[in-house]
Amino acid sequence: MTHDPRTEPNAVSLADTAGTAPDMSWFAWGDPAEAKELEPGLRDLISQVLRARTEDMPPVAEADVVLPASRLDSGLLKAFTELLGAEHVLVDDAARLIHSGGKSTQDLLARRAGQASPAPDAVLYPADHDEVGRLLELCSAERVAVVPFGGGTSVVGGVSPLDGGFQAVVTLDLRRLNRLVSLDTTSLTAVLGAGVRTPHAEAMLAEHGLTLGHMPQSYEYATIGGYAATRSSGQASAGYGRFEDMVVGLRVATPRGTLDAGGPPASAAGPDLRRLLVGSEGTLGVITEVAVRVRPVPERVVDEAWSFPDYASGVDALRALAQSDTRPTMARLSDETETFVNAAIGGREAVPGCQAVLGFEGTDAEVGARAAVVRKVMEAAGGTALGPDPVAHWRETRFHAPYLRDTLLSAGILAETLETAASWSDLLPLYAAVVGALTGALEDDESGAVVQCHISHTYATGASLYFTVATGAGTDPAARWDRAKRAASDAIVANRGTITHHHAVGTDHRPWMAAELGPLGGEVLRAVKSALDPHGVLNPGKLIPEA
Ligand SMILES: Cc1cc2nc3c(=O)[nH]c(=O)nc-3n(C[C@H](O)[C@H](O)[C@H](O)COP(=O)(O)OP(=O)(O)OC[C@H]3O[C@@H](n4cnc5c(N)ncnc54)[C@H](O)[C@@H]3O)c2cc1C
């Protein structure tokens, strides 16, 4: 991404604002105080439904977590300290523990049981692009593995500090790259530091009446660089697009130097390098700045829920919307099981069939008209309008689910998610295959399983499927989930789904990447990596399939 002087007259430079939320808990999502204990009656009911004997699974005390000793030798420590300053090179156990992995259920199970291995040998906090560049040159020369770390919300092992066989591994926490670098109010673009978390980005943009409109469930902690590195998708993707659609340009530090990609609104100058770097998950370089498209803060939000007799008719309705010119900003459709479970959790009477929630954001003048056109499409597809209340309930509770997962884990119940996407023609067979694979892998003497699903991202040619699974933890919860995840991933690949729609690849989806890319596709990625990262120090063991 180039800093074009032609945009300078409109560029607004802001002071370096801290804006960083506190670290998340080492064993849970966010602030563990938010994960309330499960009421005994509710726990009995869930155990009965799951046919599981549940036992408490409290986390060990932090002092009892086993961390491998730091392997950083005095020469490396001195070199990092000279580069960043001593206060930005941490080798203490508390910093290494928080950076020992992401937030998948497997990550949480391991840490709750007292295992934080692997852990980074040091956590480094560079201040800007140049420091990141110099660190990468040093790590490449010294053969030290580097793991970029944004918010650490990866659920696929993306931030696991694997050393790739090198002498040491360091985690690069990018929180100090936290500025709104520039804002072009004519072109409606903003350049944001990679370490900016979403609430901070939105607060800085709101001062100018602007918004990014990217709201994944992890938005409180996830960062701009992390979104670009993983091709994230937010809850209002129908209107605002996926994060990659918002990215206008990128500045990336690599062991070989700086790569600037993108800038102009469109180009025919060969393959789009911006697209190559978006989704590269820290394996090709460290994203330090992202230029994004921004929009005016919506004047009005209109919500409407709908019910459909069954999932198939709801899917048809969402397809009709996605293929029409007039679309909502947010569209989600729960299957029968999720519709029932959501109503039960919310203490509401369940509507029969499936529930869809739609949201419209925009100007006063256009939102109502758009909602009216969409209403006709929903009615023609057999939907019954339920009014705005169910959507209001979803909006109130939508960011609480990660805390519920922690509550359930402490009570001996696994609740985990996985996702995929496919064309409209393949969607329902894929849905049935994944539900079958998960229940087949999990239903046993130890427990039954509840598998529910929703569509939350729609496109003209297809949609995503997001599965939530609840099952008793059993005697070996990690092995139990591993079995289920493998069965689901095999079913996804066999039924023409993508191995991931928005969670990214990391370590967990890597075994299925050869099937996703084909042999030549894998070779292309390996060739690009060896051009940018000749010694392979960047995020080893992630994303790129082995030869
Ligand atoms: C409860 C929960 C809900 C979630 N909901 C959603 C959702 O709705 N939509 C969605 O898309 N995802 C979701 N996720 C997944 C996750 O939040 C996203 O993948 C997010 O984009 C990660 O951002 P992060 O800043 O936390 O990145 P991290 O977790 O820190 O890193 C993710 C990957 O990107 C790399 N990386 C990070 N920053 C950089 C950088 N600056 N340069 C190069 N590489 C980098 C890391 O090395 C790693 O491989 C959810 C996760 C959780 C735990």
Automatic annotation (TrEMBL):
Domain FAD-binding PCMH-type, chain residue ranges per copy: 116-297
Keywords, sorted A to Z: FAD, Flavoprotein, Oxidoreductase
Keyword Oxidoreductase: yes
Keyword check for Oxidoreductase: yes
Gene3D superfamilies referenced in this protein's UniProt entry, alphabetically: 3.30.300.330, 3.30.465.10, 3.30.70.3450, Uridine Diphospho-n-acetylenolpyruvylglucosamine Reductase, domain 2, Vanillyl-alcohol Oxidase, Chain A, domain 4
Any Pfam family matching the protein: FAD_binding_4
Family to which the UniProt record says this protein belongs: Belongs to the FAD-binding oxidoreductase/transferase type 4 family.
Name this polypeptide is given: FAD-binding oxidoreductase
Organism listed in the record: Nocardiopsis exhalans
